[in-house]
Amino acid sequence: MPETSDAADPVVVAEQSHLEESRSALKAMRDEALTLRAEGGNAVSTENLLAALRSRAKALMDDPNVPLFFGRLDYGDAPEAGEFHSEHYYIGRRHVHDATGEPMVIDWRAPVSTAFYRATPKVPMGLDRRRRFGFGHGVITGYEDEPLSDAEKDAQTDAQTDSGTGAAAAVAPAGQPGASRILTDEIERPRSGPMRDIVSTIQPEQDEIVRADVNVSVCVQGAPGTGKTAVGLHRVAFLLYAHRDRLRRGGSLVVGPNKEFLKYIEQVLPALGEIEVGQTTVDDLVARVKITAADPPESGVVKGDARMAEVLHNAIWSRLRTAREALPDGIMIVRGSRRWRVPASEIDELIEGTKERDVRYGAGRAMLAPRIAHAVLYRMEVAGEATDDRTQNAVARTSEVRKAVDLLWPAIDPLKVVFELYADPEALAGAAEGILTPEEQAAILWTATRPKVPRTPGTAKWSSADAVLVDEAHDQLDRLPSLAHVVLDEAQDLSAMQYRAVGRRCSTGSVTVLGDIAQGTTPWATPSWAETLKHLGKPEAVIEELTLGFRVPRQIIDFAAKLLPDAAPGLLPPTSVRQQGGSLEIDAVAGDADLVDTMVTAAQLALAVQEGSVGLITADARAAEVAAALDAAGVEHSVLGSEPAAPAIEGATETEAELVESLLAETAGPRLVVVPATLAKGLEYDQVLVLEPAEIVAAEPRGLRRLYVVLTRAVSRLHVVHHAPLPAQLTAR
Q1: Least confident segment among 66-80, 168-182, 599-613
Q2: Parallel, antiparallel, or unpaired for β 103-107 and 96-97?
Q3: Fewer CB within 10 Å of terminal CB in the chain, N or C?
Q4: pTM (2 decimals)?
Q5: Is residue 659 over pLDDT 80?
């Protein structure tokens, strides 16, 4: 291989020296941030400055086990080098400069760094050479040089001939991770704890998505192991670098499928120096009611249908009353000794004119009083009276006008709107006429979804789908604010109404949608990305597809892909660039009574034979039994979804360096995690043990898709233990 790992090699010595100098420079940068005083003009300004200094200090943290840089670019004198002519740059996770301001490490997101990910011998982008570094415990262990220009190729060939060694020989072209030992080792490096960043292994097709323009919404269809989640996280990190002011003002958010998934990815952005991105689930995003119930599938499908937005629209706007009906004599306003009357017909014209402006219900209600007041002012001016804005405001605030507005355009509680639709069949029928069938209407009434019909909104038990409808009602009353950018991961499982909830949070911004149609397991899973983007309000978004897997070995991918013709017809099977011997093992157990004991033995063996994390995935109903058996055998483990929440850390000041570091410290738990199958989506483990696939399939209507998800969580080894016959698809040749 073209990698050198000799610690005495002069190149390794020189590069290690630069690494140590860079660490010292980063420490100096952080020390400076920690010693700055926050002195604003007032208490609020001081607190804002202090928060900025804390953020700066956290962004400059240095983990000694993670290299500050992972590559080096040597630009030549070709015209393509442009402003980087004959310069060399170290590429890392963040910018580091020395005391004079000279850069020692360049942020991977900077324009100069693009060539690290995209340059090839055919398109060298002005580079003579690209160098990758191997690391162990934060120390440089070796390097690989890839000559890209003709001159550099000739020079390295001559050097290899003269030295008789292969240390500086060329590596394979970019975009072929299997050809680079350092790149392959980094991809396959055992992991434990949360997900890691992939800045040193981003591939050209991934980089294209990461650096997409901030105004462009992108949808990424990604097969297992293609790095779609990492691409989405690195994209928001890139946008924060390239458009920091815009994203800081507008805000950015990552939306994941569940809290366990968010825990898994929570350290990626802080490791890249970005700590201002919010992370949430859809349930928490729309948390206007407490979610304490689950809907039957047939009810959840109807509640999640996009047609429910129209039903809510009808229910809300049906509250309007005409003046001819409610105020047949119109409105009489007394101003001094004069009386001014606005007839019912004119008031109705004002109401219709306001509705035609296509405003939210709440905005229209707010507009009605000033419009009625303006009609009064017109009459006053015709009569020769002097008026101004103060007169109009005074008329709009009169009790007569306020009472008329409350009567004709009443204030609405969105929670009550949803509650009444579920509680009153006649109200639902009126709002859903021509939209929902009678059977669909019956499916969402309280009598169909709850064993005990609630009397009031406060006593109701609300579901996730209900919370989304309440959120929709809020938005139809008053428009919700938009963020600058939203990343929506595992998007294939959301309903149309959930897409709408996310879409209104980025109505004026952009979105990165990540998912895999083949992994859709809910009854309302999206049939196509075009449908998803329509509901998100981003039909113009660019759809990209990642099919080349770099993480899951080919044997595992090929085994799991046998499910696709039945689980997700029409989707092409994924491919993997990794071929790893011994990565797939299938054991049949003679008796069901021995099943869990066999799995415990398999877990003990997995912990003994290989480093890294082990995920033991089982049907949800089996998780407690498996955990008890592991406890009885004295095998240390955790159960995903049952961990207590981490205590909050408060009171940091600009001089408390140790406490700031603890905010981002990774807490290493047991290597073995028992994973209920419904929580496995989006996670990865070095080794995955799957217990009784037939039970996973039988547990839900789209069980084959769930099993496909489960089987593709392994980065190095998959071990299946079963007593019941495997699904027929897996045994077919």
Answers
A1: 168-182
A2: antiparallel
A3: C
A4: 0.87
A5: no
* Calpha distance 622→689 (Å, rounded): 14
Identify whether the C-beta of residue 228 lies closer than 8 Å to the C-beta of residue 514. yes
Q: Are 515 and 222 in contact (CB under 8 A)?
A: yes
Residue with tokens 């607190």, as numbered in its chain: 47
Q: Give Cα separations from 583 to 3, 555, 692, 716 (angstroms).
A: 26, 7, 18, 6
Q: Quick check: 448 pLDDT over 90?
A: yes
Q: In this structure, is the dihedral angle defined by the CA atoms of residues 372, 373, 374 and 376, taken in order, positive or negative? A: positive
- Which residue type is seen at 471? D
Bridge partners, residue 133, by sequence: 143
Backbone angles phi, psi at 618, to 5 degrees: -140, 160
Q: What are phi and psi of 15, to 5 degrees?
A: -70, -35
Full strand arrangement of the beta sheet holding 714-722:
584-588, 714-722, 685-691, 614-618, 672-676, 638-639
Give the C-alpha distances (Å, rounded to integers) separating 657 from 40, 54, 57, 299, 633: 22, 9, 8, 52, 42
Query: What would the two tokens of residue 546 be?
Result: 């990642």
CA distance to 306, 376, 424, per residue, from 317 (Å):
18, 26, 17
- The whole-angstrom separation of Cα 13 and Cα 19 is 10
Task: Write a three-state SS string for 521-539.
Answer: CCCCCCCCHHHHHHHHCCC
Strands 69-75 and 127-136: antiparallel
Alpha-carbon distance 427 to 137, whole Å?
66
Nearest CA-CA partner of 474 in 320, 293, 305, 285 = 285
